[in-house]
Hints:
The protein is an alpha/beta fold. It is about 35% helix and about 15% strand. It has helices at about 40-45, 65-70, 95-110, 140-160, 175-195, 210-215, 235-245, 255-260, 270-284; strands at about 30, 40, 75-80, 115-120, 125-130, 160-170, 200-210, 220-225, 265. Strand 7, helix 6 (about 210-215) and strand 8 (about 220-225) form a beta-alpha-beta unit. Helix 4 packs parallel to helix 5. The N and C termini lie far apart (about 50 Å).
Amino acid sequence: MAWFSKQKKVKAKESTPPAPTPAKKGEGIWYQCDACSEVVARADWEKNWNVCPSCGQHDALPVKRRFEMILDKGSFQELDADLTPQDPLGFTDAKKYRDRLRSTYKATGLRDAFISGVGTIEGRPVSVGCFAFEFMGGSMGSVVGEKVARVFDRAYERRIPAIVFSSTGGARMQEGIFSLMQMAKTSAALHRFRSVRKPYVSVMLHPTTGGVAASFAWLGDVVIAEPKALIGFAGPRVIEQTIREKLPPGFQRSEFLIEHGMIDAIVPRATMRQRLGQLLGLLG
Ligand SMILES: [Zn+2]
């Protein structure tokens, strides 16, 4: 039985801003860019790591391809793949949480919204993890929090740098307080890792918001963002409604944040691997 009951059936609200998903773009041999409307060969767009060759728009990139892009070929070893989410509250909104997990697993083939393991970049070992936005908006529940904490734990034990790619709407509301606790847990694991004096590079993708932005994502020794990523705690719509003021153009986008000293660099996918390698060389 659910821990509370609702009289009125309300549609489940995602607290996450929409992110482009490759599935929406059709499966033909042509790809039309949302930003510039240019039509290019899908193969070229995919070869370009889902970046529009014409205007540089960065579309969502599946997690596995991101590891291919960043890590040395064949070096990635996935760990903690067997961790699967539970339903501690017996939560039901428009749908039972259990059913939602099952259908998302069927649709994405993922157990939860985070994939992690170890690999190498230009021969240097790293403990690495990446959010999968396609799994319930990349929301952080107990499993995601545990896996993020283990990225830092492994980095601590092996004395190697840590890299986390975030793309998330924040906490997973279906796990209530268990989800919120992950902010403290991941930050504590990161704090312990700091004692080995190896770098933690946080890469924020579109979008990075909520409890993830408010914990380990913004605690990187170096904080990098992809171009035009939406990054912040509450989304712009919520802020506008709260303060009743129009927000400046480009608010909460990478380009706005770097101007205001909130991030260290904006790095496009084409040079991400090289920049990470350079950082690890300098700091690792
Ligand atoms: Zn374009």
